[in-house]
Amino acid sequence: MFAVALNADSPSTYLLTDTDADARLELVPDRGGLATRWQIGGQDIFYFDRDRFANPELSVRGGIPILFPICGNLPDHQYRLGDRTYSLKQHGFARDLPWRVTHQDVTEAASLTLELTSSETTLAQYPFEFRLAFTLRLRGHSLELQQRFTNLSTQSMPFSTGLHPWPHPTSISR
């Protein structure tokens, strides 16, 4: 049986479960759409540093951060486009911004869709209008991530994207 539940404590956390498989996934939309915990049979699949997560000023270590519009670093955290210079920190801004929940479903899996759209904050760092939609589906012992990137600008939108999963040391088979 599949379920999606919201724990409204701060920060709001969604819990996706597949009770038949004893699997669960926790997502925190307000903290970059971050998947903070995936468990199968009570065993953590991800490493997650809850102390760093508790301080919004620190970058998160663990879970699955979403990297957009860049992966990695830029020289001096800057790039030039046309006649302007923009600043982007390591891995971009998507992992630090609040995402909006737009859909949930429990028909064939426990699934949740999160969206991030361009804003004054993003446009100051990356001058493109966009909409990102990430759907996470938990079914059995599988986690599926579907990504959709929509360019809402009139010009081409260069970007790179990535996920930065942190496997839990005990979940790695040798």
How would you characterize the overall build of this protein?
The chain has 174 residues and is mainly β. It has helices at residues 50-53, 120-125, and strands spanning 2-7, 13-18, 23-28, 34-40, 43-44, 66-67, 78-81, 84-87, 100-105, 110-117, 130-139, 142-151, 162-163. It has a 5-stranded antiparallel sheet with strand order 1-2-3-4-5, with no helix packed on it. It has a 4-stranded antiparallel sheet with strand order 9-10-11-12, with no helix packed on it. A hairpin with a 5-residue loop joins strand 3 and strand 4. The radius of gyration is 17 Å and the shape is globular. The relative contact order is 0.21.
- The number of E-state strands comes to 13
Q: Main sheet?
A: 5 strands, antiparallel
Indicate the mean pLDDT.
Answer: 93
Helix content bin: under 10%
List keywords for this structure.
mainly beta; 174 residues; globular; 42% strand; four-stranded antiparallel sheet; five-stranded antiparallel sheet
Describe the secondary structure blueprint for this structure:
Blueprint: E1 2-7, E2 13-18, E3 23-28, E4 34-40, E5 43-44, H1 50-53, E6 66-67, E7 78-81, E8 84-87, E9 100-105, E10 110-117, H2 120-125, E11 130-139, E12 142-151, E13 162-163
Could you provide a short overview of the structure?
The protein is built from two helices and 13 strands. The chain has 174 residues and is mainly beta.
